[in-house]
Known about the structure:
- Its main location: membrane.
- By secondary structure, this protein is mostly helical.
- The protein has one domain.
- It has 16 helices and no strands.
- The longest helix is centred in the first third of the chain and has 32 residues.
Amino acid sequence: MTALTLPTKHRPLRHFAPGLALTAVLTGAALWAGSFPAIAGAGFSALTLAILFGMVIGNTVYPKIWQPCDGGVIFAKQHLLRLGIILYGFRLTFAQIADVGVGGIVIDVLTLSSTFFIACFLGQKVFGLDKHTSWLIGAGSSICGAAAILATEPVVKAEASKVTVAVATVVIFGTIAIFLYPAIYPFLTQWFTPEAYGIYMGSTMHEVAQVVAAGHAVSPDAENAAVIAKMLRVMMLAPFLLFLAARVKQLAPANSGEKSKITIPWFAILFILVAVFNSFHLLPKAVVDLLVTLDTVLLAMAMAALGLTTHVSALKKAGAKPLLMALMLFVWLIVGGGAINLAIHSLLA
Length: 349
C-alpha cells in the first residue's frame, strides 16, 4: 500500500500496468462493438460504450481486483484524459469556421451560452443540485457531450459519480435526438433548407457521433452542415473551460487556497494550439488520421476508467433530478435552439 502514496513520477511502471491494461481491454471492446453498423447508426460512440462497459465491470469484477489496478485506472482517468483533450484539436481546423459563416458562429455562441446559463439556473435554483452536477450536465448539453464533460471534470474537480450522471444524460437525450430530428424535419421544411437544418442540428445536439447519425438520416447537405456546425461548438470548449476556471476561483471560499489563484486548464489551451497547428495542414493526412485514432483510444480509456470507479449506488443516490434537468435542457435545445437558428438566419438573410 506504501507505493500508492508515492508521487506519480517515482512510481514504477508495474504500478500502472494492470490498470492501464484493463482500461485498454475495455476500450478495445468498445471500439469493436462500435464498429457494428447497427450500434454506430444509433449514435453510440466508443466513448459512450467504454463508460458503459467500465460500469459493468466496475460494479461486478473490479471490486475484487481493484488494488493492483487502481494506480493505472487513476492515471487513465486523469492524465490520459488531458492528453486526449489536447489531441482532440487534430479533429479541427479554423477553415471550418469559414464554412459555416458568421451566422453559424453567432448561432453556436448564443446556443452554447444560453444553454449553459439555463443549466446553472435549473440545476441550482430549481432542482437544488450541487454546482458540480449542474456544470457538468450544462457542459455536456451545451458543447460536445461526453468529451466536454470529461474536459470539465478536472477544472471543477467533480466526483466520478457526478461525471457519470452527466454522461448518462447525454446518452439518453442524445439518442432520442438521433431519431427525433430527422422525424420532425419534414414538418419544418418551409422554414429550414437542408443546410440550415444541418446547422440547427449541429448547434443543438449533444455528441458528434449523434450529429453524424441524424444528419445522415436527413440528407448529405444537412449532414455536412451539421458536422461543421458541431465542430465549431467543439472549438469553443477551450474558452468555455477558461471561463469556468475563473468562475471556480470566484466561488471558492475566502479562507481556501483556491481563492488566491486561478486553476488554468493548460490542456484546454494546448487543445486550441493543436487546432491552430492543424489548420496549416503541415502533417500528412495519414498522420493526422492516426493521431485522431490515438485520441479516440485515449479518451475511451479515460471513459472506461471513469466507469470502473463509478458505483451504481451513487447513481441511484443522485435520483431523478439530474434527469429532469437534462430533459428541460433538451427541450430548450430543440425549441429555444430552433428559435435562435430561425432568428439569426432571418436577420442575415
